[in-house]
Design goal:
The complex is a heterodimer of chains A (113) and B (110).
Chain A: E1 4-7, E2 10-13, E3 18-25, E4 31-37, E5 44-50, E6 53-57, E7 64-70, E8 73-79, E9 87-94, E10 103-104, E11 108-112
Parallel strand pairs in A: 2-11
Antiparallel strand pairs in A: 1-3, 3-8, 4-5, 4-9, 5-6, 7-8, 9-10, 9-11
Chain B: E1 3-5, E2 10-14, E3 19-21, E4 24-26, E5 33-38, E6 44-50, E7 56-58, E8 64-68, E9 73-78, E10 87-93, E11 99-100, E12 104-109
Parallel strand pairs in B: 2-12
Antiparallel strand pairs in B: 1-4, 3-9, 5-6, 5-10, 7-8, 8-9, 10-11, 10-12
Classes of the chains: A mainly beta (113), B mainly beta (110).
Chain lengths: 113, 110
């Protein structure tokens, strides 16, 4: 299994809602990543988990809260988002945090009303 | 600080023609370099990567890239483009905190 899966594919939420994005991989990778991609822009790194511990937070607002319950699963909890947070949220995983290529999921298209 | 520049925002080529997408990087040490492709609304797929060794790297879908340290470049090439190659192409540098270039959108004319 060389796949990263993300659910849901699409999410529409209001600014007062709480929702979560889910990412899963079964490749035995020990590093997992969240990226945010706005339309016609490159992906921007948000968080990196290495061996289930948060190793990088790229100064992301606290309304985004990542969680890594186990080595296969990565969540992104969303609360009190703003319309400008609407974007494609991509999850990725890699075998190590240094040097290995990252495998990307298909993304969750988030719209904040 | 590491960074990537893709000078061409949009390139149009005819089907069957050759393709070269440019990428210049800035990195303090031996760079980890990648080319990814993204179709609209989709995730990214790795085309090829360079860590060390042979500077001409072969990838999937008939793509290759050449690492030139003296020019800080890692250009992507394909000898004959197919209509299905139309997509957004991203060059990236780094390992953990990978940085992407702005991307080059490829249009293929019939």
């Amino acid at each position: 299994d060389t796949e990263v899966t993300q659910t849901p594919k699409h999410l529409v939420m209001g600014m007062t809602n709480k929702k979560s994005l889910k990412c899963e991989q079964h490749m035995g990778h020990r590093a997992m990543y969240w990226y945010k991609q706005k339309a016609k822009k490159p992906p921007e790194l948000m968080f990196v988990y290495s061996y289930e511990k948060l190793s990088i937070n790229e100064s992301v607002p606290s309304r985004f809260s990542p969680e890594c319950p186990n080595s296969s699963l990565l969540n992104l909890h969303l609360h009190a988002l703003q319309p400008e947070d609407s974007a494609l949220y991509l999850c990725a995983s890699s075998g190590r945090t240094s040097g290995d290529e990252q495998f990307f999921g298909p993304g969750t298209r988030l719209t904040v009303l | 600080a590491q960074s990537v520049t893709q000078p061409d925002i949009h390139i149009t080529v005819s089907e069957g023609a050759s393709l070269e997408l440019r990428c210049n990087y800035s990195y303090g040490a031996t760079p980890y370099l990648f080319w990814y492709v993204q179709s609209p609304g989709q995730g990214l797929q790795l085309l090829l990567k360079y860590f060390s060794g042979d500077t001409l790297v072969q990838g999937i879908k008939g793509f290759e890239a050449e690492f030139k340290r003296s020019q800080s470049s890692f250009n992507l090439r394909k000898p004959s483009v197919h209509w299905s190659d139309a997509a957004e192409y991203f060059c990236a540098v780094g390992a953990v905190n990978m940085r992407f270039g702005a991307g080059t959108r490829l249009t293929v004319k019939p």
